Automatic annotation (TrEMBL):
Subunit relationships: Homomultimer. Associates with the dally/ magu complex.
Alphabetical GO biological process terms: vesicle-mediated transport
Pfam family, one: Cg6151-P
Transmembrane segments: 16-38, 45-70, 90-123
Ion transport listed as a keyword: yes
InterPro entries tied to this protein: TVP18/Ca-channel_flower (IPR019365)
Keywords assigned: Calcium, Calcium channel, Calcium transport, Cell projection, Cytoplasmic vesicle, Ion channel, Ion transport, Membrane, Transmembrane, Transmembrane helix, Transport
UniProt protein name: Calcium channel flower
Record family assignment: Belongs to the calcium channel flower family.
GO molecular function, one term: calcium channel activity
Stretch forming the signal peptide: none
Top-rank taxon, per record: Eukaryota
Length: 164
């Protein structure tokens, strides 16, 4: 078994929000995938099957208690929990795109959009906590260019552009 990846100091609500969107969005995406399969367009049927498969993958990773009757889900969930946040984000975002590309309907966009949103939330968690105000000011002061650059001359003397 792998140990969970070291987490950055994140707010508790952000972790539960990503899991909640993954679980709830997966359930909604699975229902909308079934709805997508009730058509005569072959690409929309394939997109609905893909969306249901993606929803099952997300649900089994985020809420393994929903799939406890399947043997490998607990091992899979533990393995996914050990991944870095950016890896989960990239996986969920890539997993959500094919259904929308195959059949860009309202049900597909909404269902896969919730899986995509879960990936975006994990991506935000991967970026980490925002720096303090003092850190931002110090970083901005370090990035200022030389005072004699062309842009500084134009800002200091608006009439300088006529002489060049």
């Amino acid at each position: 078994m792998t140990t969970p990846a070291p987490q950055v100091d994140l707010p508790w609500w952000q972790k539960y929000l990503a899991r909640g969107v993954g679980c709830g969005g997966g359930i909604i995406a699975m229902g909308l995938g079934v709805f997508n399969c009730l058509t005569i367009t072959p690409m929309c049927i394939v997109a609905g099957i893909w969306q249901m498969l993606a929803a099952f993958i997300v649900i089994s990773a985020e809420a393994p208690c929903c799939c406890m009757f399947i043997d490998f889900v607990q091992q899979y969930s533990t393995w996914v929990e050990g991944r870095q946040h950016w890896q989960k984000a990239a996986f969920y975002i890539i997993l959500a795109l094919p259904a929308v590309i195959m059949c860009p309907g309202l049900a597909t966009i909404f269902g896969s959009g919730l899986i995509f949103l879960c990936g975006v939330l994990y991506g935000m968690m991967a970026l980490g906590k925002k720096g303090s105000r003092e850190d931002m000011i110090a970083a901005a002061q370090q990035n200022t260019g030389p005072a004699n650059s062309q842009s500084a001359i134009l800002v200091d003397d608006p009439e300088a552009w006529r002489s060049t």
